Amino acid sequence: MTDILFALSKILWFPARPGHFALIVGFLGLLLVWRGRRSGRWLVLASLGFFLMLVATPVNQWLLLPLEDRFPRPAAVPERVDGIIVLGGAVDQNITEARGIPSLNGAAERMTEGVVLANRYPGARIVFTGGQGSFVHGSVTEADVARQLWTAMGITPERVIYEDQARNTHENAVFTRRLVEPKPGEVWLLVTSASHMPRSVGVFRAAGWRDIVPWPVNYRSGHTWQAWYDAPFPERLGQFEWAFREWIGLMAYRLMGRTESVLPAP
């Protein structure tokens, strides 16, 4: 059943992705207009209206802000940390396999922050969790890329547990807990993108990580006009799609019982 849900999530996301969906609607409208049906004009207008909305308003920021503000970093840096968990999603294993060197995407701060924390807390256990998160992939996992990158940056492979089976956030939480078996009272930091943190915390709590400490990175929103309107259109579309996917993921995970609430609270 888990494999079926994973496959469905990847297949359905392609047409449901807002940019793709708007284009599909627009081309369908053009087809209807070409066949002489005036109703197609409304579909064309709806498609163009979506893209105009992204240009004229900071709707991408409005979707991101509640997610990224939900779990701020601790006001005081913890004096003792027993473990650090870095979620996958920041590397491109397919490009890495094609080119032979580690390739990072827009969530690269997950990887750099992992190195910063490893140096700050030399006694902490480190876990990177990420397998084959993409539907079409080769033989290289996210953990393989992380191992190659972090080793080159000075973190010895013996210090890190590389979990290479998880395909989504739910499996990140379940498989990592099974590997490290955290003890009561231990302090574990959870490193992932700020917009992904609500879903991650909810899933980790449901999997038994009751005292996980959120450590968000990779912020993409702000509370100033400059932050709202500075990004070019392709970046705005990407932010909108990322935030839209997170909101859908929060609702889907709640329906599947993988979280205890739609929007977990601090």
From TrEMBL:
Pfam families found in the cross-reference section: DUF218 (PF02698)
TM region positions: 12-33, 42-64
Cellular-component GO terms for this entry: plasma membrane
An annotated GO BP: Gram-negative-bacterium-type cell wall biogenesis
Extent of the signal sequence: none
DUF218 domain ranges (all copies): 82-249
InterPro entries: Cell_Envelope_Assoc, DUF218, Rossmann-like_a/b/a_fold
Keyword list, A-Z: Membrane, Transmembrane, Transmembrane helix
Record-linked CDD domains: YdcF-like
Domain of life: Bacteria
The protein's name in its UniProt record: Uncharacterized SAM-binding protein YcdF (DUF218 family)
Organism of provenance: Neoroseomonas alkaliterrae
